[in-house]
Amino acid sequence: MEQNKKKHLWAGIGFLIAFLLWTALIRCVDVQAACPNGTEVGFATLNLWFHKLMGVHMTIYTITDWLGLVPIVICLCFGAVGAIQMVRRRSLFRVDPDIILLGFYYILVILAYLVFEMIPINYRPILINGFLEASYPSSTTLLVLSVMPTLVFQVNRRCERMIVKRIVSIFVVLFSAFMVIGRSVSGVHWATDIIGAVFLSAGLFLLYRYAVDVADRRREATDGIQ
User: Fold this and answer.
1) C-alpha 123: how far from its chain's center?
2) What is d(CA 193, CA 177) in angstroms, rounded to the nearest whole number?
């Protein structure tokens, strides 16, 4: 069991290293001017081929954009859970550790998004409402793949009914697949933007899992002493 929990740590670190390496490669491999304003993008041959293959589908872009509110609502729901626990237990420190860690995790995801908005790695292949926006990593993909797994994780921890767990798991898998595929084929991101978001979200989520494992072990040790 202990070894399995450590796998979350090493796998999370591995994905984050993969993300950093991928980001570095984007800046130096096959860099060509490809964006509407003449700015450059890495892996240009691959990205241009995939973009031409998929084309641009603004309807899919709009649908996935609005559905991006779903993970935001989930964040707010868990925030409400933490707030209710804090009020009832009259202390922030009595809120369940996994919920507190979840709050820090969501903040970390937001910070990652803001960093890459302020320091663009590359820009979108098309203009959005006349503006050229930062594109790496895909923010919608990052949000979905960072938040939706936490819904499954928390439901599995807190719900005893197997049918509910299965329904939530199926919903999360189908929703996440639709969002990632939809974002990929919509033509508003380069293929490398989607891949980068997958690496980053997987790394962050696995580190959250490990942090919860550590908190659980500490609680078990404290309960054992008492």
Assistant:
1) 19
2) 16
